[in-house]
Amino acid sequence: MKLFSSSTSSNLTIFSPKQTPTPQKLHIPKPFKPTHTKPHLHSLSSSLQENQASAEPFSEDKDKLNEEIRATRQSLEELLVVRRPVLDSLVEDDEENLSSVDASLSKFAKKVPFFEPGRVESRESPLVVNLDLALYRSKVLARNFRYQEAEELLQKCINYWPEDGRPYVALGKIYNKQSKANEARSVYEKGCQATQGENAYIWQCWAVLENKMGNIRKARDLFDAATVADKKHVAAWHGWAVLELKAGNIKKARNLLGKGLKYCGNKNEYIYQTLAMLEAKANRFEQARYLFRQATKCNPKSCASWLAWAQVEAQQGNNLVARQIFEKAVQASPKNRFAWHMWGVFETNQGNIDQGRKLLKIGHALNPRDPVLLQTLALLEYKNSTANLARVLFRKASELDPRHQPVWIAWGWMEWKEGNIDTARELYQKALSINSASESAARCLQAWGVLEQRAGNLSAARRLFRSSLNINSQSYVTWMTWASLEEDQGNAIRAEEIRDLYFQQRTEIVDDASWVMGVFDIIDPAIDSIKRLLNIDQNSYYKATNFNDISSIREELVGSSPDLVNGSGFNLDGFIRGKLSLDPSRLDIILERSFQNPVSGNANSSRIWRRSSKTLARDQRQEITTRSII
After folding, report:
1. Residue 145: which region, alpha, beta or left (left: phi > 0; alpha: psi -120 to 50)?
2. Per residue, what are the HEC states of 393-448?
3. How many CB atoms lie within 10 A of CB 424?
4. By CB neighbour count within 10 A (0-12 exposed, 13-18 middle, 19+ buried), where does 559 fall?
5. Which helix (H) or strand (E) holds 569?
6. What does the pLDDT read at residue 387?
7. For 12-46, what is each residue's pLDDT tens digit?
8. Is the pLDDT of residue 101 over 80?
9. Whether the predicted pLDDT of 73 surpasses 70
């Protein structure tokens, strides 16, 4: 590229690069040209030519003119500067394409390091499917009492997925199983912070924990937070309602249950079940049956709904209907320990001892680590067999779960009946050392007080009755037992004072039927308008639909049962053979094998509960407290 057409300008070639560069490998921008370059050079060249033409006659000015030309060339060389080309990428194999670039520039470019981003090892979280697998594995580990491994696995899940609420819930439940309330509370608190308070499951689990620990006000706040986080979280509404029921706030509980039905689409069996139990307690059995039917329609596999309904029918003396509902319960959940236990107790109370024993043995074969089944079976054997067999069953139950208070209380009651007073006292003391502030502890203190009363230790009996009432002041049995003690001692005035104290401090729950139709308006809004239009009373709707017709309920239950003998009875043996792969003739053998394999010698000995140093110290403190009571 030549800037001047004259001979003078031919020596001022600035930059003439090769015109065939490889555009993919090398990008060279145009040289920088100041905006004032062209007009300045043009005016300068014209002025030089005029000076040359005018200076020819004057020889004395040639030297001056040459010096001016040299100064002009030097200024132009300083002004026109070639900029370094910007390279996007450079490969050593492409050096032949840089031939047009100045050699010094090429050497300099080779020395300049190219930008290479640092390889930062980012710890990417695994796929979510790994979280699902880890949660399932932790559940299996906890089911096998391998709590330490489950805790470590869930801690890893929390580190990788801190914003997922499921690991917090699972870890808190594992701590609850080990009676580590403080650790569980800490996990729930961290989970609420990590999820920014938007996970209703964590709030609800935390509320249940606080309710269990007796912090009612804190539990209310946490249930409220759970419903704010997700108003469709039915477990929060139901748990809050149950809390208010236990506190005696019936209207508040009804309101919460109604909101649960409103927000959760009328498809939750637990709310229907709780409402039905409220109706049954208020002796409104027509409404209760309607609600039980709604619960079982929402979830036919809900064993709890069937069992609650069966209990209500048994209390009303409808034994045939209750038995058929128990059959539906075991069909809905064949391995449910509560179903087999409650059905066995029902048959035992009806005088069907062999049938009750068989049902309890089936439940034990399906749930060999449940102490309640063995405890009930031990009481049955004590009343209908020998005390030695009952002791074996009690000992086995206490080995399965040493912290289950009712086992120790029932065992102590049997020893008292057998005349072993010292053994009974030791067993009662063992029960209180587990937990001296629970409802079971109140029953234990009342039973122990009766023992001391019969043994003639009246002062100890009074202290035990007083301690029991400090835990549960609503126990009618304890108040009346204490009053009878005073009457037997000739203190009629004191006995009357104790009865008056019971009636004064008794919490009366006044039931109001006005709320019922409000709840049913949520279930079926058309019912109320139809009643007003036809001028029908409140109970006519249920009478018209035969909710109170026991025979219709029996026909419905029997007609839907798949395992019947001659259309009237439940084929229990065929059911356990087909559904549970159990041989009815081997139930006694299975029970005997459980006795021959002690828990301490089992291969899964890690399942056995072992007291830590903290738990041992707490038990010792409670034992000292118990002794001070006596």
Report:
1. left
2. HHHHHHHHCCCCHHHHHHHHHHHHHCCCHHHHHHHHHHHHHHCCCCHHHHHHHHHH
3. 23
4. exposed
5. strand 569-570
6. 94
7. 333 344 444 444 444 444 444 444 444 444 454 55
8. no
9. no
